[in-house]
Amino acid sequence: MKIDKPCPKCKTIMELKKTTLHFEREGFYADVENVSAYICPKCGTRSIPGKLATGIGKTVENLFKSVRETELSTDKELAPAFSGISFHKVQI
Fold this sequence. Notes:
By secondary structure, the protein is of the alpha+beta class.
């Protein structure tokens, strides 16, 4: 089902496409690739559907929380446990 979603900035009808979301917290970065989003072909504004945005937000915040907890660990062999994560779905 196609939904005509007007851009909140310029009112052009947005297109459903894939995009990459970038997050940064305290010197750590996370990219979430191939996210379905409404993107304005005129001004580039992106809109992520509510449930998807909430799910991605919770996942990324949990990742950053895990990194902070590992860095604060008194066990210096664990800190930092990693410096980056790349997560991809395998295309068959």
